[in-house]
Structure formats: structure tokens, C-alpha cells
Amino acid sequence: MVNVFYSWLANTCLNDIVCPCDGKAARQRFPSCLAIGSVAVALALLVVGVPGCGGKNVYRATRLPVEYQAPLVEDLRQISLSQFTAQQSPSDVISPGDVLEVTISTDLETQAKPVLCRVDDHGIMVVPDIGPVSVGGLRLSEAEKRVGETAIARDVYRRPFVTIVPKEQRTYRVTVTGAVERPGVYAIPATQASLLTALVQAGGLKKEAQPAVEIRRAERAEKKTLPLESPVKDEAENRLTSWEESTTSGDTVRIDLISATRSATSDLRYQLNDGDVVYVPERKVDPIFVDGLVTKPGMYELPPNQEVRLLDALAMAGGRNNPLADDVWVLRHVPGREEPIVIKSKLNAIKRNSEENIRIAPGDVITVEETPGTFLYSLLKGFVHLGGSIPLN
Question: Which CATH class is domain 172-279?
């Protein structure tokens, strides 16, 4: 911008202006004379002005197009993971791999002996004397009814009383890694294996977490629907998900947690399978740069999950070091554009118009500009300091 010009001008004036005194001794005795020419030049600049930057890539802060504004900052710590628990399958739904205790009694029996039955990968369990029964995907009460109907249809019992108690639920081993509090491998009941359950098991998200998480699917067998024998006449209930021998390579699913939180519908992508990996990337935000008429110019990191405005960025740099500083230019690289844009703001106008206090984006370069007024203020301030050192004798 114009800061370099003003610095050059100040050095040139102080070193090259000729005062009424002669030689080195004159410079020591009359340092105030050296500033006369500089002040005159600064006053001239106030009158004629200094040309500024302009062009199609320069925008006023109050007229900044939406597509060039910094994105909103979403605080992931405000996401309520508990709201997704209602989307889980009921805990009494039978899944492949479950071990069930089945008790079948009749009117003539005072005490029936329970038997343990394991549900295979096709969702079928073999009950002694009755044979294979399709129970995968059913709730316990529905499975009891299914076993009773099958026993009657196969002439094993006339009026059976069936009780099913889960003894061991199938679990999925899911790995959670990245920006979570407790990365590791977790065993989750198959009926409740979802993205949010895994995140809760891992202690939740760190403040550095990105909103977009990844589910890396494990290689698994392809599924297809096969008809299975059943005494139930309803054709819809006579179909069951089965496994093929061939497997498919795992893919990666990316989910935005913020969008998922706002959605009122469930999504099958949230469901996890055995061997899946949940990866939460860590948010990597480019720093901002604050330069110009500030106390501590330099590079500053943006705090995670927190919105930073123009005044906040200047506060990071210790505030402006010149009370007359007003013009601020923000150099911003916009995704999809080859050339950066320049946003011009006025600090003294922020009280009247909050739109001047723009939201800062990662990578912004903020410069509090030198103006003829600030330049003259610095010269006069230096002039007073120089004059104060003149000996009175």
C-alpha cells in the first residue's frame, strides 16, 4: 500500500532538508529545523492527497458481495449428539450373531427347559424339535410369535407358549480416530451401531474437530434379498437379507455433522458395520496477518469455533498505534478466484455501521493504512520529542 512511501518520505526529508544552520553542529543544536521541510511536505499531501488503490477487485465493507464474505463459524461444541439416539434401532431387535434363550411350554408342562439358539448370518436360528425359524430383524415379541406359529404349522405343538430372552448380543468393533477425546476401538451392539453412538463412546469431539467426518467402510460381503421358507403366508415377511460370498472393497462416506444435526430425517449413511473406521479430521485454519499501524504486527492464529471480526483481529495485534488511523484494507483470497480481493473498511464508522466490522476469514491479510493525517501526526509527535531534547542554554 502506501506505508512504504511515507517511510521513505520521512527519511528523505529528515536527512536531506537544509536548515539555516551549517554542518553537524547545526543538526545537533537545531534538530527541530530538520522537520520543517517534512511538515511542509505532509501539509501538501493533505491538500493534494495521495492516489489510492482501486479497481474491480476492491470492495467497500458495506457493499461486500455475499460470495466474498467469510463463512459463518459453527461451534461444534454446541452440537447435541444425544438427539440422534432416537434414530437408533430398538435394543430388542434380533440381529445375526445374537444368542437367544428360547423356552417353549404347553398346558401340560409345569416347567419347560430353556435352550440356547444362535442366530446365523442369514437371520435364522434352529430351535430343537421345530427346526429353522427366520427371526432376523424381528423384535423379541415378534420372534416369540413367529416361533409359536412355526411350531403349530409343523405340527410340533398345538398351543405353545414361547418366551425368548437375549443372552448375548452381536457387537461390531468400530475404530474411532482423529480429533476425539478418547480414540480407540469400541464394541457397539449391532442394533445401535451408528456414527453418533461411536462418537459418544469416544468421549465426543475435541474443539479442534472439523464438522465433516469420514466413515471408512470395511470390506464386506454384498447383500441381496433371498426368499426363505416360512409358515407365515405374508410374502413381505417371507424375505430376509442374506449374504453372498463375494466381497466389495470399502468406500469412504463423508458426513457434515452440522447439516446432519439440522436434518429431521435419519440417514442410512450414519449406520456402522463391523470393522468400520470413523475418522474426525482436525481443523487446520490458515493464520491471519495484521500489519500497518498496529502495536504488534505479525501472524495470528484464529481460535477454533469462534467468530473473529475486524476489531477482534486488531485487538490481537495490540490495537492501532496511531489515534488517527482509520483506513483498513483486508486482502482476501477467495476460493475459485485467481486474484485476491481487497476489502476497504473505516474503523471510525464501525460504531455507526456494524457492517464495517467485517467477519475475518482464514488467511486474511489486514493492514491499517498510513494516510496523510497519520503521517503528519507521527511527524508532529517526533517533532515534539526532538524539541524536548534541545538544551535551553
Answer: alpha beta
Q: Write out the CATH class of domain 99-168.
A: alpha beta
For residue 332, what are the CA distances in angstroms to 23, 70, 117, 118?
49, 9, 65, 62
For domain 54-73+285-370, the CATH architecture is: Roll (3.10)
3-state helix/strand/coil string of 27-51 = HHHCHHHHHHHHHHHHHHHHHHCCC
- Portions of the chain given CATH number 3.10.560.10: 54-73+285-370
Cell numbers at 43, concatenated: 501539509
* Interval 252-274: pLDDT, tens: 888 887 777 766 555 566 788 89
pTM over 0.70: no
Instruction: Quote the pLDDT of residue 128.
Output: 93
Helix, strand, or coil (residue 241):
strand
- Quick check: helix, strand or coil at residue 379? helix
CB 54 within 8 A of CB 102: no
